[in-house]
Amino acid sequence: MPELAIYLAGSEDPQVRHCGAVNIANLAAYEECKTHLVDHGGLQALINFAKSDDAEAQLCAALALARVSTNTENQTKIVDGGGLPPLIALGVNGSRDIRYLAAVALANLTASSAQDQKKIIKEGGLKVLVSLINSGEPQALGPAAAALANLASGEENHEVIVEEGGLDALITLIKCSVAETHAHACRALSLLAAHDTNKPKIIEKGGLLPLSQLVMKSKSAEIQRYVASILGQCANDENNNAKMMVVEV
């Protein structure tokens, strides 16, 4: 069945090609098909659909990439196989649903290796994530926050995350009403706070007040642990103590 869908996706007939795109997206939901699709020409078909001017084909490509990227074996294959540029382009130029799916795929891909994370940042993935967060699109905020938190897990990414507006975006997420984003944002901030140069920046950018407000109203033990970690790391610096004491809640 995957081979047939891939074959149809390569047809010169637009209707047949569309049928192939839909079938690939549907098959990508099944774990047993995910690696087979990527390994047997499905990835290239999805890249072609993502690059096309057909909005429905783009949607199928984004959905399929979001689905096959949950498989750890596929993540590096997608990154190395040319999947990043069209995926990132969809995150910028696609419809609202397509941008959401692109964010989901990036969240999955950033959970891979440090080398893959570096390539994602180099190709512009970080900029897209920050842009999606700043756009305030509720649907995309959760996966974009997860992807940013995944990138923050690599200490070598901290400097570029801050430089490209990631820290500001995370503080924005703390303040937003979409609860799904809070744990991801807190996780990312706790990781960034481990770096000495980031501690004063979190304070200077006004991160402590929304964090304090969040932890007081949240019943999530996960969020409470992350916020406690952030506050503890920021307080572990005499230069920050005075700044921290003037925060009122």
Explain how this protein is built.
- This protein is mainly α and 249 residues long.
- The protein is built from 18 helices and no strands.
Q: What's the shape?
A: elongated
Number of strands: 0
Q: What distance lies between the first and last C-alpha atoms, to the nearest angstrom? A: 59 Å
* Poorly predicted ranges: 242-249
How much helicity do the residues have?
Answer: over 70%
List the helices and strands and how they pair.
Blueprint (H helix, E strand, L loop, with lengths): L1 H8 L4 H14 L3 H9 L2 H10 L3 H14 L3 H9 L3 H10 L2 H14 L4 H9 L2 H11 L2 H15 L5 H6 L2 H10 L4 H13 L5 H7 L3 H10 L3 H15 L2 H8 L4
Short descriptors:
249 residues; mainly alpha; 18 helices
Concise account of the structure shown:
The protein has 249 residues and is an all-alpha fold.
